[in-house]
Amino acid sequence: MSGEPDARNQSTDWGYSEVPPEAPMGRAAAGNKVECNACPVLCQISEGRTGACDRYGNFQGVLTRVDPVVLFQKVTTASGAVTEFLDGEAWNGDVVTDTPVFLSGVGSGTTYPDYKPAPFIVSSRHEGVDMVTVVTEGIFSYCSFKIKIDTDRWLGPEQATVRSKGEAVGHVTTAEYGSQMLSLGGVHHLTGGSKKEGRVTCDLMMALGNKQAVEVQIEGGAALTIQAGAAPIVNGVEERRMRVGCGSATIGIFAQQWFGHVDEVVVVDDHITGILTEHQAGRCLDMPPSGIKIKGRKSTPGRYFQVANPGTGWGGTDITDPLSIVTGFDPKIAKPGQRILMVSTTGEDAAYFVLDENLRPVPAAMPVPVRKVVDRIGENCEPALTTVLFLAGAGGSLRAGVTDNPVRLTRSIKDLLVAVTCGGAPTYVWPGGGITVMVDVARMPENAFGWVPTPAIVAPIEFTMRLADYGALGGHMERMRTVEDILKNERVRLVSWDGLNPWPVGVGERREARG
Ligand code: SF4
User: Fold this and answer.
1) Ligand 1, from 49, 56, 110: best to mutate by most atoms within 8 Å of Cβ?
2) How many CB atoms lie within 10 A of CB 40?
3) Once rounded to an integer, what is the mean pLDDT over residues 99-113?
4) Which atom of ligand 1 is nearest to the CA of 37?
5) Does any ligand 1 atom lie closer than 6 A to the CB of residue 109?
6) Global confidence as pTM
7) CA 41 to chain centre
8) What is the distance of C-alpha 475 from the center of its chain?
9) Are 361 and 355 in contact (CB under 8 A)?
10) 45: CA distance to ligand 1 center in Å?
11) Regarding predicted confidence, which is higher, 410 or 103?
12) Interval 203-218: pLDDT, tens
């Protein structure tokens, strides 16, 4: 992030000497240093250097945001120039009815203390309606990352501490269907422990937000490498498949396809191990019981809990030999020659047995029709991925930067009058008090996250609403600028809108959809 920034256009109303007092200012400090007031750290920055966070630098005695602000362009012209849209030359749409660019919070800077308006308050039009977007880089102490790791393998006990470089940075939280979940970062680790714990936590969080791979160790559990959008690596082994379902679901899904080819199927799963002939699916097919007996606690017919310990073996258990969970066959029911399939919930592990005269399962070559269904289990598994969601609560400067009456902003967001995006990506706003947002970092631009040494995480956030609503909630109307003004007078980095995210300015439709 650090480095010499491009020369800013100084020939405008917004040149260095006329930076409005609400924007971060480089107050003269000792020698040729300037003081950055964009966050509580108040770095004293020497000429040609950047501050502690690398976001602001002293360039020719002027405090400057190092990175340009990211501007998304919705439509691409042959030359890629936004000004062509604005001049109406190459873009055949109408800028009067729809502004084809969106200013994101990435690189926008921060204002501090709280009462100062946000760095950018930008007017635009969407389908003929006057809109406004308030853009900033928020500094978040109350924030964390929720990590979904698509694997059945046991990563560690629930509530176990997750460590990075030996420091506690989070914990294992409730497992979900086919996925193990971590909660990493958060105010407790950022500010409630030692200085080192806070720094390591902050580094880890920034890397996760910026879609980099990080290594963590779970106490009493696995070593992981995780990265947004990439397959998780568990104890050095890349996970490939997310299970098709629990053992019971797998029995239910594939029962008909097994029917006639086997006399029993056991789907080994750490959660629910399924037994076909006992299961309702087998009964509906009139399959006679096989007499198999397995370890574990019977939940309901054909569904067993705790057949083994959790682990990185078959179906998220610790077994590598499937017969280790079979305690025997009832001689009153079982018959020599019975065909038994044992398979995991991903189809990665499978074994086929035939009962001998003494009702002992003997390994045998798997018949083609049975192999076909095992392969189909694998085919129905989705690729195992790591998903990284950023969860944060908007604090003082974020809300006061939008309006001098912050509770109206909160209410307007809940009333769907205001769209909240992070780097242009859609967010989920939690119900209840405050502005607690959650966003998938994979949908955000590259290097959207930063940090300050308080320590806290810096993340882009934008609030978009109708101009009339902004006025009604007490917005800083006098600070509003046009896109044209920003294009002329600010250093911007143009990024093509990828189209996977909804265009953030469509807030009017949200309200109308709600009725
Ligand atoms: S940490 Fe960054 S934002 Fe904070 S005062 Fe230093 S340079 Fe400015």
Assistant:
1) 56
2) 12
3) 88
4) 5
5) no
6) 0.85
7) 28
8) 30
9) yes
10) 9
11) 103
12) 999 999 999 999 999 9
